[in-house]
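User: My collaborator sent over this chain with a note saying "see what the structure looks like." That's all I know about it. Can you take a look?
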Amino acid sequence: MQTTAKRRLQNMRDWNPPYIWGIIVLSFVAMVAIARPDLLDVQNLISILQQASNRVIMALGAAGILLTVGADLSLGRILGLCMVFTGSLVQSVTYAGRMWPGLPALPLWMPLLVSILIAMLFCAFNGLGVAVFKLQSYIMTTGTQLIAYGAMCLYVESGPHGAAAISTFAPEFINLVNGGIPIAGEVEIPYLLLYGIAAALLVWLIWTKTPFGRNMRAVGAGREAAAASGIKVNRTIMGAFAMAGVLYGIAGYLDSARYAPLGTLARPEYTLNVLTACLIGGMSLQGGAGTVPGVVMGVVLLQFVNYTLAFLGVGSYYQYVIKGLLLILAASVDVRRYLLRKQRAEETEQQEG
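Assistant: Without extra context I'll predict from the sequence alone. Here is the result:
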């Protein structure tokens, strides 16, 4: 039984890296750069990496759930809730329109902790439904996103100024997120880039160097086989959701400084952007497959597409159409690869049987 489980896991892990997506995207960018060489100047490249960095953090959280049980459709709303909570706690004490007028200036780690705890609470709720009550992740997280959105609206409207937008943050918080380390002239390495690299390294270590990471892959490849191998399936699923909660909380904390003023429409489109990036990066909707470098590559490639379209002046409505087509294409490739791997695994088992 253990040999069969290992063979299935190996077949599911044997996915080609997303080189083909890199070739397609970079070819597109190269064609645009030939006509508009200023697309690839140093400042633009740094801007692309900066914008991709925080999406890497949230994508790594979503990827852990994809690796284990399926897609998390509540990501965008959980992040929106974390953003408005963070924003309300880091407003400048000199701002007359503060959401909480009597609140003293808080150390910056405290709103971060609040953001992480909120995200972990919602992710634990998702994990409970999927692991213990055996609900499909798509159903469970769809319900959770509605709960998170309702909670966000109630919180925004609970302030003394009603549903006023949350803005005017403390300068030290803005610098923590949007600042950088000068390297030459006006060029600097953004702090966000460093945060993204640190998160990617940490998650890579967890996925590849710990029993928990190996268990995540095994559960994604097949819960029954994983359980037969002695893996605590429910504990692993809950752990994947908990790790996602930590990363969502960090991402929501950081993004609150980048998208102020904040209101009830805070970043609901994150879910599909992150899902598309994960699929481009080699993750599977069926679970059990994917790598951290692949996720990072997928996020950066998608950000190149987004930036290039905006650089060319493509309207936002057309961008939505293009992103939708990319998601469908990436999902189609994922399903096709999964069916091929499944067919090969069945043929191998028949030959060995």
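A starting point for your reply to your collaborator: The radius of gyration is 21 Å.
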